[in-house]
Amino acid sequence: MHTNTENTLAEGDYVIMSKQAYKLKSPQRGDIVLIESDLYDSVTGQKRLIIKRVVGMPGDSINIENNKLYINGEYYSEDYIKGDSTPALDIPPQNSEVTVPEDHYYVLGDNRLSSVDSRTDMIGFIDSACIKGKAVFRLYPFSTISRF
User: Of 22, 59, 123, 147, which has the maximum CB count within 10 A?
Assistant: First the structure.
């Protein structure tokens, strides 16, 4: 298994987002999406936009066992995550299973050891209305320009 040692995105990266990406279709597993979270920016007082990867679709069963992610009972191999571990946190707790509610998504950061994502009560399942667009291109820093 390939193990990524670099972050897919880092603080300060500039990305181009498509707001139209989900006008005619729903987010797909593996998409990197921009989400209006319930977290607040301490400086502006506004809700923070966060960038995460969609891994769980509506109706999917999610389980994290022995630091491995399982979707619908199948191990979900991911070559883009940093490291080789997806620790369980609040949702679902270790060796427990949860079902993604209708019209919601389960999102994870690619750096699982330091990501605040759907595994935490602070984020939880993402309502589709909170997904503001799809990240399609990293523009800056110039040395890492890439398409997603």
Answer: 123
Residue 19 has a pLDDT of 84
* Phi-psi sector, 140: left (phi>0), alpha (psi -120 to 50), beta: beta
Distance CA 64, CA 36 (A): 25
Asked if 58 contacts 28 with a C-beta cutoff of 8 angstroms, the reply is: no
Count of helices and strands (H, E) across the chain: 0, 11
For 28, other C-beta atoms within 10 Å of its C-beta total 12
Q: Give 125-140 as a 3 state SS string.
A: CEEHHHEEEEEEEEEE
Whole-number Å distance between alpha carbons of 142 and 3: 24
Lookup: tokens for 10: 């880092």
- Rounded CA-CA distance 131/97 in Å is 24
Residue pLDDT, tens place only, 5-29: 455 555 555 666 788 888 889 999 9
